[in-house]
Design brief:
single chain; HSP40/DNAj peptide-binding domain; elongated; Helix Hairpins; alpha+beta; 15 strands
């Protein structure tokens, strides 16, 4: 069996440390080693060791005996007391210590709860996604009751002091152990930690202080947003309980496919259909862009798949300045039906190619 470490070493304190320093050291290390916060192997054993060291050093009689005789001086205590703190009891002990030392957990009043988030889907066009827009939407969300202004009580009335906890919002249970008395503080089950109860509830919200409303809001869609992107609107979700802050609204963006344009990152791809004559002889054509019509020259002898670039005619970058480009890709279109004159011309053309290649 491994020898026990020196209790002062366990807590990392000087042998002349005051009670306040002992408590401070224990609280800091207990947070680090508590099994609920530390899943490492050995955390439970380390916490028990810390607890044992604190139980001895925070008690004047036990500390005096330990300082004079070491572990032998408190063997009679430890054999009956420390072994009783199994893993199942660690959580409650830790909470008691935390309540006693810090005073934070000892305040049993319910804290304000942040409201839940809302999710909404917005469908926009290709152009709206590229250039940005504003959308007016209607959402159902929980807001502060307009009649009681969130108090939960009927206008003109006030909540009453909770008779169970006398308005403190907490119930204290004193427990006697081998090492002294410990106070366990819990939220009052009658008022749920509020310290007061609503005796005359608001007719509209039935005492909850909240009601569901349909609200119209305007959502600004930034230029350059893409399909399946999400916009977060802070504080536009459901209002929290007990006066807590509102949650957020998340708007999921769905972009409708365009008949002419395809998106490739921040570039816009446009396929330009041309016939044999235009490809062979060259031409100048007018094409659509997100910003209006543009003319481009097709050089003679252009092949299908050839790509031209219009700089700055693409989609704006979402989080920086500048825009992508528009890519114009040629697609040679083979005529499916020819009239007699066209057929004769193609036949003549074919004969000239054949004679040229001989």
């Amino acid at each position: 069996m491994a020898a026990k470490r020196d209790y002062y070493q366990v807590l990392g304190i000087d042998r002349k440390a005051s009670n306040a320093e002992i408590k401070k050291a224990f609280r800091k290390l207990a947070f680090q080693c508590h099994p609920d916060h530390n899943r490492d192997d050995g955390a439970e054993a380390r916490f028990k060791e810390l607890n044992e060291a604190y139980q001895v050093l925070c008690d004047p009689d036990k500390r005096s005996a330990y300082d004079r005789f070491g572990h032998a001086g408190i063997d009679g205590f430890s054999s009956r007391g420390f072994e009783g703190f199994g893993f199942n009891g660690v959580g409650s002990i830790f909470e008691d210590f935390y309540d006693f030392f810090s005073g934070v957990a000892g305040n049993a009043r319910q804290r304000q709860r942040r409201g839940s988030d809302l999710h909404y889907e917005i469908t926009i066009t290709f152009e709206e996604a590229a250039l940005g827009c504003e959308k007016d939407v209607k959402i159902n969300r929980i807001e502060r009751c307009a009649e009681c202004h969130g108090s939960g009580s009927k206008p003109g009335s006030q909540p009453s002091k909770c008779p169970t906890c006398n308005g403190s919002g907490q119930i204290s249970h004193v427990q006697q152990s081998l090492f002294g008395r410990f106070t366990n503080v819990t939220a009052c089950s009658h008022c749920l930690g509020e310290g007061e109860v609503i005796t005359n509830p608001c007719n509209k919200c039935r005492g909850t202080g909240r009601e569901k409303k349909k609200q119209s809001i305007t959502i600004e869609i930034p230029a350059g947003i893409d399909d399946n992107n999400e916009i977060r609107l802070s504080g536009q979700g459901n209002i929290g309980e007990k006066g807590g802050p509102s949650g957020d609204l998340y708007a999921a963006i769905k972009v409708i496919s365009h008949k002419l344009f395809y998106r490739e990152g921040n570039d816009v791809l446009y396929e330009l259909p041309i016939d044999f004559a235009q490809a062979a002889l060259g031409t100048e054509v007018e094409i659509p862009t997100l910003y209006g019509k543009e003319k481009i020259k097709i050089p003679a002898g252009s092949q299908t798949g050839k790509t031209f670039q219009l700089k700055g005619k693409g989609i704006p970058y979402l989080r920086s300045n500048g825009r992508g480009n528009q890519l114009v890709r040629l697609r040679l279109v083979t005529p499916q039906k020819l009239n007699k004159e066209q057929r004769k011309l193609f036949e003549k053309l074919a004969e000239s190619f054949t004679s040229q290649n001989k």
